[in-house]
Structure formats: structure tokens, C-alpha cells
Amino acid sequence: MIRVVLADDQALVRAGFRLLLDTEDGFEVVGEAGDGAEAVRRAHEHRPDVVVMDIRMPGTDGLAATRQICAELPEVKVLVLTTFNVDEYVFEALRSGASGFLLKDTDPVELLRALTVVAEGEALLAPSVTRKLIEEFANRPEHRRPDPRALRELTAREREVLALVAAGMSNDEIAEHLVISPATSRTHVSRVMTKLGARDRAQLVVLAYESGLVSPRRG
């Protein structure tokens, strides 16, 4: 059972999501929130698997709430909802620990799949759109970071694996590309996450772009 908290300042939006999840096996809505501060309280109260978080809310917005939840409750995943597919607030949410994002007009089936993927820890949904967003914002001068010391501590193979994660490859795809076993691929990804202090693959992608290990594709 995937336990979900819905955070959106529009009651009708929350009602629609609740109706969808209540009619599906394997999902339970354990709380709702109309702003970011309430979302943080509900996350602490219910310890859900996933918080579905709207970014633009009055008072404490979804970005601040995402940052607080990810810092205080690392076991709780945050799935950001937005009306725009290239949105600097979404990029900041990914930097703050959000596991991925979806557009608000996404197909209901895709939302269910996204919740399942995030709850399982895979993260980085809609990789082509997410990479476009990260490429757009991570390489702006104000977002560039020097090569972190931890990144320099990665082995050559681990840096290669990080670049493939940033390219949107799954563990199985990485295994096939490098001609290694899926178990070895998972081990490499896990070690990279540990060394870089990343909570999931989404943060690995942000780090790969911000550090300059991966550069945006042109054209």
C-alpha cells in the first residue's frame, strides 16, 4: 500500500486526486494540505511514502516545504506537480531533494505509475523533460558549482555510471551499456549516491550537470 499526502491550495484539485487514488488498489490518501506549512505538518504526522506537492501555494510555498520535508524526513519522497515543463522552481525543488515532477495535466495512469516509481525509490520521472529542465537551469552561472570534493573521489567507473544516470538510463540499461550485471550496476549507483550524499537519482542528475561532468546537448 502506497500512502500519499496531497498538497495543493485548490480543494478541487485535491478532491480529484483523492477520487482517483481512492478508486485504485494499492494507494491510500492519508492526509491533505492546502499550503506548504500544512504539508510539512501532515508529512510529520502521517509519515507517508510520497507527498504530492504543488509548487505555487500561498504562505509557505511548495519549494520551502519540499526542502524542509526532504531534510527532516529523508524516508518521505516528494513528487512535485507543476503547470510548466520548464520551471526554475521545479529545478530548485529537485536540488532540494524532490524525487521528480509531473505536469498537472498528465494522464491519470501516468500519475499512478509515477507514484509507484517514486515510492520504490527510482525517481527522476519523465526523464526527457526533466533533463531538459536541468540542462536549462543547472548551467546558468548562478547555479554552477565547483567540482565537489566528493565527485573527485569517485572512481573512473563511478563517474562513468553517474554520467549514464544523468543521461536518463535505468540500472538495467547501464548494465547493458557497460556490459556488467544488473546487480553490479545497482551497486555502482548506490555507491555513487552514498559518496555524493544524494537521496536519489534525481539529485545525482542535478549534481552531474552542476559540476560540469555532463554538459547540455546542443542543437
TrEMBL record:
Domain (HTH luxR-type) ranges: 147-212
Highest taxon, organism lineage: Bacteria
Stored Pfam families: GerE (PF00196), Response_reg (PF00072)
MF-aspect GO terms: DNA binding
4-aspartylphosphate modifications at: 54
PANTHER family: TRANSCRIPTIONAL REGULATORY PROTEIN NARL-RELATED, TWO-COMPONENT RESPONSE REGULATOR
Name of the protein this chain belongs to: LuxR family two component transcriptional regulator
